Amino acid sequence: MLGGIVRGKRTSLRVPTPADLPALASWMADLRVRRACAVWHEPASGATWKERLTEAARDEQATLWTIEATEDGAARLVGMCRIRFGWDAPISDSIDISHFILAPEEWRRGYGWDAALALHRYVFDYLHLRRSEVALRADAVAALRIAGRLGYREYAHGHDVHWRDGAYVDEIRLRMDLEDWEARWPGEREYEPLPAEAAR
């Protein structure tokens, strides 16, 4: 599926368009991105990327967004995000963040944090799912910092999982439950909770 619009304070997750594909292709080929995280598809021709976007639109087990930043009234593409639903997709109570990629030239500007917070507000408050999981490379310092700030907790640690730069690097799996989100971020709501009498 292609995601709708999820708004943060400085960024928006929005529906990907064919005009986004050259940027997506360039990020997947960028060695800085490839070193930091798993990429969404390998580099390919423009026609192949159009096919991939069509496949993503038909995939009921995943949702794809592009991330747009707005500064001084001007919007520009800065990243992409893809989540996969749990075993019973599309009716599921959990997601796995498969890809969360920012353009290297946009790193360290706060866009990753803003988009991640908006995504989790959507997952936990709008969809009201029970759990979110993510696998990160152990030296992905910025991603781990964002995950920790959100409230993720490590539940598995794989040793020597990824070969890179002549050595192996570990992989860390983290999760956050709905209860963790609600306790840590009570002010980040898409909608106010229904009164108790509404459930009667």
Task: Give a description of the structure.
This protein is an alpha+beta fold and 200 residues long. Helix content is 30%, strand content 34%. It contains six helices and eight strands; from the N terminus they run E-E-H-H-H-E-E-E-H-E-H-E-E-H. The chain has helices spanning 21-29, 31-36, 46-58, 111-126, 141-150, 178-184; strands at residues 6-7, 11-14, 62-71, 74-85, 94-102, 131-137, 153-164, 167-177. The protein has an eight-stranded mixed beta sheet with strand order 1-2-3-4-5-6-8-7, sandwiched between helices. Helix 4 links the parallel strand 5 and strand 6. The longest helix has 16 residues, at 111-126. The model has no long low-confidence stretch (mean pLDDT 90).
Task: Describe what is shown at a glance.
This protein is of the alpha+beta class and 200 residues long. The chain is built from 6 helices and 8 strands. The chain starts with 5 loop residues before the first strand and ends in a 16-residue tail after the last helix.
Keywords:
8 strands; Aminopeptidase; alpha+beta; globular; single chain; 6 helices; 200 residues; 8-stranded mixed sheet
